[in-house]
Design goal:
The protein is of the alpha/beta class. The protein is 33% helix and 16% strand. Residues 114-309 form the DUF4015 domain.
């Protein structure tokens, strides 16, 4: 027997056989992983015109915002037509001062067939129907003593559906000229008086104008919807020749002075109470003549600055006055021309029942 010097022949695994077995195991694992992957990734396969695509959740990006549509888009344009509003005619009635606080305002208006209440908040006598904070009001003794009056006025003006107008007798004032002669229209023997025996503040006085503007602002602050200026110019009744002619009473300056007063008041109201309506009382003759040489009121000065024009003795001249105010620049004169009368008017015109 042949000897191998202590070594027998090797009887272990063949290298090729081992390699093939290992390769088979790897392929089996890969196959199993592939089947598992197909099963797991099935929801993420998307088939489109571009073929099958795998869209994993972490690989999806937020789509970019679409471009703004072209202003020349062929899509039809939808035009919204605003609703046509019915003109708000003013149907007012003059109410006594006690209606400011006694709860009777609504019933009185119903009885008169009106929806708006007119109150005399500064009378021809110069008396105030509210508590003013102005020193001149105390100096003239025209402030009411009732300290609760303003609270009652605020409550009334806060009533839903109630429209309130505050009348202010501007320069016809029988009280303040007694305390301040320098603010008055003067005669050779003292304060001048009109046919009714009333004194007048001078429209040329800057202090008088400032006092009236401050009163209007206080009334706006109390919640009145509209401020109505009456006697808002130089006096027209009485012995006008008895008035002292000086720098404070120069007829050539009347229109500019009155216009300046209106302009300053409008500016102050627009700054603090832009929602408040401002109106003025005039007469038919002033509208037809375009300028009153005695009062200083002018058609253009009123129409360009006021929201409404209230006219006494309008009579049958309503259509003519509407045309005049339209030409002068008043907004919607067919609505904002208010006829002052002793009886209620028709429904499609603005009027005030003012005995």
């Amino acid at each position: 027997m042949r000897k191998h010097y202590g070594y027998d022949s090797y009887r272990g695994r063949s290298p090729l056989r081992t390699f093939l077995k290992a390769t088979a195991v790897v392929l089996a694992v890969v196959l199993l992983l592939g089947v598992a992957a197909l099963f797991f990734l099935e929801p993420y396969w998307v088939v489109s015109a571009d073929g099958a695509q795998l869209r994993l959740p972490w690989s999806q990006q937020t789509p970019a915002p679409s471009a703004e549509p072209s202003p020349f888009s062929s899509s039809p344009v939808v035009v919204v037509t605003p609703e046509i509003q019915t003109p708000a005619y003013l149907h007012a009635a003059f109410l006594p001062g006690e209606a400011l606080y006694d709860g009777s305002a609504a019933a009185r208006l119903t009885e008169a067939g009106a929806e708006a209440a007119l109150f005399d908040m500064k009378t021809d006598e110069g008396l105030l129907h509210y508590r003013s904070e102005l020193p001149l009001a105390d100096q003239a003794g025209v402030n009411p003593k009732d300290t609760a009056l303003n609270a009652a006025i605020l409550a009334l003006n806060g009533t839903d559906g109630l429209y309130t107008v505050a009348r202010v007798s501007c320069f016809r004032d029988n009280s303040l000229p007694k305390a301040r002669n320098d603010m008055a229209v003067r005669s050779p023997v003292g304060n001048w008086r009109d046919n009714g025996g009333y004194r007048w503040l001078s429209p040329s006085s800057s202090d008088a104008q400032g006092y009236l503007i401050d009163i209007c602002l206080e009334l706006a602050g109390l919640g009145f919807d509209e401020i109505l200026l009456d006697n808002a110019g130089y006096p027209v009744d009485g012995n006008l020749d008895y008035i002292v002619r000086n720098d404070a009473y120069d007829s050539a300056l009347f229109p500019a002075t009155v216009r300046g007063f209106y302009t300053d008041l409008v500016q102050r109201l627009e700054e603090q109470y832009p929602e408040v309506v401002l109106s003025v009382v005039t007469d038919r003759d002033t509208l037809e003549a375009a300028t009153s040489e005695e009062s200083g009121q002018t058609l253009s000065g009123m129409a360009e600055r006021m929201d409404r024009i209230w006219v006494r003795d309008l009579g049958a001249a309503w259509t003519q006055c509407v045309q005049l105010l339209d030409e002068a620049g008043l907004s919607r004169p067919e609505v904002n021309l208010v006829s002052i009368d002793t009886q209620a008017g028709v429904s499609d015109r603005s009027w005030c029942l003012w005995p």
